[in-house]
Amino acid sequence: MEFIDPELLAYCEAHTSSEDPILQKITRETQAKVLMPRMLSGPLQGKILELLVKMHRPKIILEIGTYTGYSAICLAKGLGETGKLITLDINDELEDRVRGFFEESGLSEKIDYRLGNALDLIPQLEGEFDFVFIDADKENYLAYYELVIDRVPTGGVILADNVLWSGKVLPKGRKKLDKDTAAILEFNQFVQDDPRVENSLIPIRDGIMMARKL
């Protein structure tokens, strides 16, 4: 579902800083060779992620859901000299392609790319996460949130992608309530009711929930 007139979206993208060549390459190759290319963040959302990181200046970012590495590179671009991105994904079939993109971006030294089930990997990680981006399987959004919320310091940020779920969060946007939609609805309401954060659901692309730890 398009949430904005395609011409207005094109206008927004035309007035957003242009993609680096490596991001353009990731887009081309993902669309040509990888299943579900809609999962790409794209230039508008990617630049927003980069700018948010530059403004927040986190030392450690945790990304849950790497896919082909577009958003990881955007997040890593925003980091300072000593910043680090830990990005987790379960799909080992994309590993060689993704590691190649990271090397080509010149940011591989800032990126710790780990493969496996994030529910198992997150408890193995040490320390706090200043900035978290959740963009993986929707049924586990709340589980991911619960795993990280107590490890985000005061002022830290959690973002979750696809929280409008192509409009299916509204009854008129769906034919039936499937598991993924139910999970997104539960997650959105949980964050809304969570006294540990202040939050805003932002209608960018497929919706981003932003929560700041109090």
TrEMBL record:
Alphabetical keyword list: Methyltransferase, S-adenosyl-L-methionine, Transferase
Superkingdom of origin organism: Bacteria
Family matches, as PROSITE patterns: SAM_OMT_I
CDD domains found in the cross-reference section: AdoMet_MTases
Record-linked InterPro entries: Cation-dep_OMT, SAM-dependent_MTases_sf, SAM_O-MeTrfase
SUPFAM superfamilies for the chain: S-adenosyl-L-methionine-dependent methyltransferases
Pfam families, sorted: Methyltransf_3 (PF01596)
Keyword Cell wall biogenesis/degradation listed: no
Protein name, UniProt field: O-methyltransferase
Organism whose genome encodes this protein: Algoriphagus limi
Lineage, opening ranks: Bacteria, Pseudomonadati, Bacteroidota, Cytophagia, Cytophagales
